[in-house]
Amino acid sequence: MHFDRFDTAAFLRDHWQKAPLLVRNPWTTWENPVTPDELAGLACEEDVEARLIMRTPRAWAVEQGPFSERRFGRLGKQPSTLLVQAVDHHVPEVAALIAPFRFIPDWRIDDVMVSYATDGGGVGPHFDQYDVFLVQGLGKRRWQVGQHCNRHTPLLAHDDLRLLADFEPVEEWVLEPGDMLYVPPGLAHNGIAIGDDCMTYSIGFRAPSRSELIAHWADALLDELSDDDRYRDPDDMVPGNPGEISQQAIGALHAMVTQTLHDRDAFARWFGRYTSTRRYPDIDWSPEEPVDLDWLHRMAGNALTLSRNAASRFAFVERAENGVLFFVDGDCHECHAEAAVFARSLCAQTSLPIEPQWLTLPAVATLIAALYNGGAVTFGSDD
User: Fold this and answer.
1) Are the C-beta atoms of residues 328 and 376 closer than 8 Å to each other?
2) Which of 4, 135, 164, 262 is deepest in the core (most CB within 10 A)?
3) Beta-carbon contacts of residue 374 (< 8 Å; ≥ 6 apart)
4) Are both 48 and 193 inside the same structural domain?
5) Given 181, 205, 229, which residue is the final one in a domain?
6) Are residues 46 and 190 in the same domain?
7) Pair (50, 164) in one structural domain
8) How many domains does the chain fold into?
9) What's the average model confidence in pLDDT over 49-63?
């Protein structure tokens, strides 16, 4: 899918992480990527994260999937919403929704959540800590946006939902199929289905918090530090007051911490692995039959393409010595020369024709075999 009418430069300047924006059907053509029945089928699978949210006059109820098919037949007439995470991992047509938004770096993309709601269904007034594009797939939904929120904003008491105690709508729109609403982080919003068969696609963009970065980076460093690396007193240490922690000691102790944290190259390697880890790393996407270098060499004369697994994450960091650190699903590959060219190309495209010479170059062929055997890519024929 592609945008027909969308001013990317104006959007980034005036709205991205600043203000909401309604765009009426910007697509060249709009076709709903997944049917309600297909979405319900995904919600019944063990390795799919799904929730069912029901609204009653007095409370909100949440059920966690997977669900049985019979559950959907017993919903009754109360407003309900089915939420299925990472549908882009399982449905190529939903994964294709991400392509028009790649003016934002891939490492910021989280997933595509799909919701199906009956008349009056929704998840209640809330706010998110990430950017989201809300694309209406089927039916109609009324969206309201309100106040800016933060960690001090009062919430209702609920074990599973972060609902606002007070919601003050300032704008509202009714979205029809193909319409899109952008909501920046921290902005209160509320969506209510108008009629049955209301489907919405939420393309979310994650942004790590400072506390998250520090915590996970520190955890990674701790795994590599030796318990033998300890503070040592200077030879001329004679305290004027035994109770004082000297400025000299404070400086040495502070340096022990900051020198480790300031290793930029180590941080780049860690962050590339961290941010490229799949959302559900325990799911095994590896093929039944792995390939080896001999097989790849024999295939060098064939017209092949590599297609990326939508569940996999790809990124790279340029290095001063004319190579790249190539990250795929939490693994780091050091690439130079043709291997670096291949890595950049695969990060730029979700489907990549294989240059015949790549399969004869050990570094590139070894990398392709590792990606395929790990389930990050599949082979296809250009024919």
Assistant:
1) yes
2) 135
3) 285, 286, 328, 329, 331
4) yes
5) 205
6) yes
7) yes
8) 2
9) 90
Q: How many CA atoms lie within 13 A of 192 on its CB side?
A: 11
- Would you say residue 239 has pLDDT above 90? no
Q: Which amino acid is at 321?
A: E
Question: Do 174 and 194 contact (CB within 8 A), yes or no?
Answer: yes
For residue 72, give every residue at least 6 positions away whose Cβ sits within 8 Å of its Cβ, in sequence order, or none: 40, 82
The pLDDT tens digits of the residues spanning 337-377 come to: 999 999 999 999 999 999 888 888 999 999 999 999 999 99
Q: Tokens 């033998």 belong to which residue?
A: 228
The answer to whether residue 123 is domain-embedded is: yes
| Whether 146 contacts 125, CB under 8 Å | yes
* CATH code: domain of residue 331: 3.40.366.30
DSSP-assigned letter for residue 327: E
Q: How confident is the model at residue 383 (pLDDT cuts 50, 70, 90)?
A: very low
Q: With b meaning 16 or more CB within 10 Å and e meaning fewer, what string describes 236-248?
A: eeeeeeeeeeeee
Confidence (pTM): 0.91
Domain membership of residue 303 as a residue range: 293-381
Domain contains 285: no
Report residue 34: phi and psi, to 5°.
-140, 140
Whether residues 151 and 297 share a domain: the answer is: no
Q: What is the dihedral of CA 72, 77, 83, 84, to 10 degrees?
A: 20
Task: Express as a percent the part of the chain with pLDDT over 90.
Answer: 79
In a domain, 57, yes or no: yes
164 and 32 together in one domain:
yes
Decide: helix, strand or coil at residue 364: helix
E strand or H helix that includes residue 278: none
Take residue 259 and report the two structure tokens written for it: 């020198």
Please, which contacts does 91-99 make with residues 24 or more away whose CB atoms are closer than 8 Å? 91/33, 91/34, 91/38, 91/42, 92/310, 93/33, 93/34, 94/33, 94/34, 94/201, 95/310, 95/350, 96/1, 96/33, 97/1, 97/33, 97/135, 97/201, 97/203, 98/203, 99/1, 99/2, 99/350
Residue 258 lies in a domain: no
Say if residues 101 and 109 touch (Cβ distance below 8 Å).
yes
Q: How, if at all, do strands 109-117 and 377-381 pair?
A: unpaired
Cβ-based neighbours of 249, under 8 Å, separated by 6 or more: 231
Last residue within a domain, chosen from 153, 175, 205: 205
